[in-house]
Design brief:
By secondary structure, the protein is mostly helical. Helices cover 50% and strands 0% of the residues. Helix 2 packs across helix 5 (91-104) and helix 4 packs across helix 5. The structure holds heme C (HEC).
Length: 109
C-alpha cells in the first residue's frame, strides 16, 4: 500500500471538521424541517403553521441556554401541550439542534 494514499482523505476530513458547525447546523435545520415544521416555523423567517407553536427563532435564550435543554431533547422533549408529539434526539443531534436554535434567535417584535 502506498503510504500517502490516504492524504487526500485526511485533507478532506480536516476541511469538513473546520466547517463542522455550519454543516451541523444545516443538518439540524433539515432535521427540524422534517420533524417540526408541521407546527413550528423552523427557519429564520415566516410564521408557524400552528398558531400556538412558537417560531423556533423566538424560543429565547433562557430556554436554549438552560443546561437541561440538550438533555431534554435526548430524553424526549415532551411539552405540556398535548398536540406536541414526543421525540428523541441522540446526544450529537441534540447538541447540533441546540446550536442551530441558538444561531437563529432573533428578538421578538
Ligand atoms: C403537532 C404540532 C407540533 C409539532 C410537530 C412540534 N411542536 Fe413544538 N410546540 C407545539 C405547540 C402547540 C407549542 C406551544 C405550547 C406548549 O408550550 O406546549 C410547542 C412548543 C414548543 C417549545 C417551547 C415550549 C416548551 O415546552 O419548552 C419547544 C422548544 C418546541 N415546541 C420544540 C419542538 C421541536 C424541537 C419539534 C420537532 C422535533 C416540535 N416542537 C414539534 C406544537 C408542535
Amino acid at each position: 500500500m502506498k503510504p500517502f494514499a490516504f492524504a487526500p482523505l485526511i485533507v478532506l476530513l480536516w476541511g469538513s471538521f473546520a466547517h463542522a458547525l455550519d454543516a451541523e447546523q444545516r443538518h439540524s435545520q433539515s432535521l427540524l424541517e422534517q420533524m417540526c415544521s408541521r407546527c413550528h416555523a423552523v427557519g429564520p423567517t415566516g410564521g408557524s403553521p400552528n398558531k400556538l407553536a412558537p417560531p423556533f427563532r423566538h424560543l429565547g435564550e433562557n430556554k436554549l441556554y438552560d443546561p437541561d435543554f440538550v438533555q431534554r431533547l435526548q430524553d424526549g422533549y415532551s411539552s405540556i401541550h398535548r398536540s406536541m408529539p414526543t421525540f428523541r434526539f441522540d446526544r450529537e443531534s441534540a447538541e447540533a439542534v441546540a446550536s442551530y436554535l441558538k444561531a437563529i434567535q432573533t428578538k421578538k417584535h
